[in-house]
UniProtKB/TrEMBL annotation:
Designated name of the protein: Retinol dehydrogenase
BP-aspect Gene Ontology terms: estrogen biosynthetic process; visual perception
Residues annotated as domain Ketoreductase: 6-187
Localization annotation: Membrane
UniProt: NADP(+) binding residues: 12-40, 66, 160
Catalytic site: Y156
Alphabetical list of Gene3D superfamilies matching this protein: NAD(P)-binding Rossmann-like Domain
EC number per UniProt: 1.1.1.300
Protein function: Retinol dehydrogenase with a clear preference for NADP. Converts all-trans-retinal to all-trans-retinol. May play a role in the regeneration of visual pigment at high light intensity.
PROSITE patterns noted in UniProt: ADH_SHORT
Family designation: Belongs to the short-chain dehydrogenases/reductases (SDR) family.
Species of the source: Mustela putorius furo
Origin organism lineage: Eukaryota, Metazoa, Chordata, Craniata, Vertebrata
Reactions it catalyzes: all-trans-retinol + NADP(+) = all-trans-retinal + NADPH + H(+)
Length: 312
């Protein structure tokens, strides 16, 4: 007899990576999944439903879920047939960029409430069932910014570092229950995410920020960030494809990067445990050797340097 389809719950499916992942899993007839694609605002479900096509109502259902609300999480889980989640994908996330002095604590807390506590809330809700059944897979969409800090992204990077530490710690205990954890670490991905951030910062005034810092942010960081997305940005389809492979794997890895072209940018951190090399070279590339930075990014974009990322 064929195995029953695995139920996959994904947060943040109104757009981007979550939407693409839901659609790809729902159409994966080889591995058979029942996808519960969730979003906080069901008014946005049109794009997902159109992309799902004939899978809608068959292998994909859409449900409301705000990762910042206990009530919403409880209600969503109670609506799942059998109440069992075999694979949880913590994908919902928000960004925050800008000079620290000009950002409110409330904005930074919102980043942690969504990116970190949102994932923790969902895991606490599905874990008892997974432990009882002695199987499960928890996928967390982290970021390369969960591995290395990036200038003017302090709060966002910190929320992803928090995820990395939390889930690496939990992974050890959960192996006893045959439950796997995978932290997926994309580099730049061309979704609404960056668009929303750039829209915010183009109108933001960043009160209490000195003119020098504002100049560094607007005239050095923002152009470099645009160039980075332009040169090594990945499509959400590509990232979703990597996650689909991870979910179908019998021994999923703890960490999975998605973008081979970004790998050289994190090498600096791994070759020098003191961290000085990364901080100094990144500082020079951003503020002093701008032309070299742009040339390097174009070189990475052309694909002449090949780095292997598993699984392919
Ligand atoms: N884009 C990148 O460059 C990049 C790189 C590395 C990692 N990531 C990570 O990838 C994940 C997906 O991002 P994306 O690039 O696909 O961006 P996206 O298109 O903006 O998707 C983010 C999703 O999270 C949802 N969300 C936000 N707050 C939520 C909440 N409280 N409850 C439920 N859902 C909520 C958004 O819903 P609404 O439509 O309602 O806002 C949206 O569906 C995030 O965790 C992000 O940190 C992105």
């Amino acid at each position: 007899m064929a195995d029953a389809p695995r139920t996959v719950l994904i947060s943040g499916c109104s757009s981007g990576i979550g939407l693409e992942l839901a659609v790809q899993l729902a159409h994966d007839h080889r591995h058979r999944y029942q996808v519960v694609a969730t979003m906080r605002d069901l008014g946005k479900k049109g794009t997902l439903e159109a992309a799902a096509g004939e899978a809608l109502g068959q292998t994909l259902t859409v449900a409301q879920l705000d990762v910042c609300s206990d009530e919403s999480v409880a209600q969503c889980l109670s609506s799942i047939q059998g109440g069992e989640v075999d694979v949880l994908v913590n994908n919902a996330g928000v960004g925050l960029v800008g000079p620290l002095e000009g950002l409110s604590l409330a904005a930074m807390q919102n980043v942690f409430d969504t990116n970190f506590f949102g994932a923790v809330r969902l895991v606490r809700a599905v874990l008892p069932g997974m432990k009882r059944r002695r199987k499960g897979h928890i996928v967390v969409v982290s970021s390369v910014m969960g591995l290395q800090g990036v200038v003017f992204n302090e709060a966002y990077a910190a929320s992803k570092f928090a995820l990395e530490g939390f889930f690496e710690s939990l992974a050890v205990q959960l192996l006893q229950f045959n439950i796997f954890i995978t932290l997926v670490e994309p580099g730049p991905v061309v979704t609404n995410f960056e668009g929303k951030l750039l829209e915010q910062v183009s109108t933001a005034e960043f009160p209490d920020t000195d003119p020098d810092t504002l100049h560094y942010f607007r005239d050095f960081y923002l152009p470099a960030s645009r160039e980075l997305f332009h040169s090594v940005g990945q499509s959400p389809q590509d990232v979703a494809q990597v996650i689909v492979k991870v979910i179908s794997s019998t021994r999923p890895p703890l960490r999975q990067q998605t973008n081979a072209r970004y790998t050289p940018l994190i090498v600096l951190k791994t070759v020098d445990p003191s961290g000085s090399l990364y901080v100094r070279i990144t500082h020079c590339l951003l503020f002093r050797w701008t032309r070299l930075l742009n040339l390097g990014l174009r070189c990475l974009a052309c694909g002449c340097l090949r780095f292997r990322i598993w699984p392919r």
